[in-house]
Design goal:
This protein is of the alpha+beta class and 335 residues long. It contains seven helices and 20 strands. The strands form three sheets. Strands 1, 2, 3, 4, 5, 17, 18, 19 and 20 form a nine-stranded mixed β-sheet that branches.
Length: 335
């Protein structure tokens, strides 16, 4: 979550009313099998790809601020692709793309990449590390009821969230939705309570994952048609003004979409920033179901047998793939 670059309305201020013509509802032909409507409950998020203007500055920032170390690199024409991760797990790919314009905060694309930590000590240690790094910008902290989160902006303006979840038994639900809000979280008090020297010393070896990705879109109704109806995420919160949250398996959100800065925007122009959002599904049957959902809606996609690549209505590339790709596979994937 988090309101970067604009004030985020509180849920009680107004309902979401964002209507636009959606993708046409798909109806299977008589006698045709109906694909699974939702993604497998074991679905998770994979590495995010960013197109960057200064590879060394960006790679150095993510290494120093978030302990994301370079894992592999390759050149492709004028581009250089570099995979970063923690404990050998790929979490981010940077693609050096000379000549593209910088990130436009009013365009569809990335709001933030959210890195999830398994406990408060790991989160506090990484936040402490990031606060020492002058290359980025600290944008605040928030209690979202389901999680506690800290927000940063990297040197090229891409948002980053660091967070840890509260136990699911503590999540509040109302009317079939998971309640999330944006309440004040005192960063100094949090660090005083949770920061340990042991975690600080072990920061580079602490595990972390991409917990969710938050996108800027032009219209929420169209976003729901694509990310919920076509891809198969399930909406978890629709009453937050200007935003939609969705997930697989009852998580609070794997994907979020907002129009706070980008309402009414059309397809994104070529530029730096988000290159690809990766989603991991457990097995081939999950890819088969996705192919069927996309086919019914006549949404074009690329398919190499292990992954399905599709663009959302604003040109954001989404790669849905089988789990545990090698670093080399992440490096080679188009973005």
């Amino acid at each position: 979550m988090e309101a970067r670059r604009t004030r985020r309305p509180r849920p009680e201020e107004s309902p979401v009313t964002d209507i636009a013509p959606p993708f046409p509802r798909a109806t299977p032909a008589p006698g045709a099998p109906t694909p699974e409507r939702v993604l497998n409950a074991a679905t998770s998020m994979g590495p995010v790809t960013l197109r960057v203007g200064d590879l060394e500055t960006m790679s150095g920032y993510y290494a120093r601020a978030f302990a994301l170390e370079p894992l592999a690199e390759r050149s492709s024409g004028r581009e250089v692709h570099r995979v970063l991760g923690r404990a050998g797990t790929p979490l981010l790919k940077l693609v050096h793309t000379p000549g593209l314009p910088g990130v436009d905060p009013r365009q569809p694309g990335l709001f933030h990449t959210a890195f999830l930590f398994e406990d408060a000590a790991s989160l506090a240690a990484t936040v402490h590390r990031a606060l020492q790094e002058p290359g980025g910008h600290f944008a605040g902290a928030a209690d979202h009821l389901v999680s506690e989160a800290f927000y940063f902006s990297d040197p090229e303006g891409n948002g980053v969230e660091l967070y840890t979840d509260r136990d699911r038994s503590l999540w509040q639900r109302r009317g079939g939705q998971i309640l999330m809000t944006t309440d004040y979280l005192d960063p100094r008090a949090y660090l005083k309570r949770h920061l340990t020297q042991k975690a600080v010393d072990a920061a580079s070896s602490l595990t972390g994952t991409v917990g969710h990705v938050h996108l800027q879109v032009g219209n929420l109704a169209t976003a729901r048609d694509f990310y919920v109806d076509a891809l198969g995420f399930e909406a978890t919160l629709t009453s937050y003004p200007g935003a939609l949250f969705a997930s697989a398996g009852g998580y609070h959100h794997h994907i979020a979409m907002n129009v706070w800065n980008s309402k009414g925007a059309g397809p994104r122009a070529a530029g730096l920033g988000l290159g690809d959002v990766a989603v991991r599904v457990p097995g081939p049957a999950d890819l088969d179901a996705l192919r069927a959902r996309l086919g019914l809606r006549q949404i074009p996609f690329a398919d190499d047998g292990r992954s399905v690549v599709v663009n959302d209505p604003w040109g954001t590339q989404v790669t849905v793939a089988l789990p545990d790709p090698t670093v080399d596979e992440v490096l080679a994937r188009a973005s």
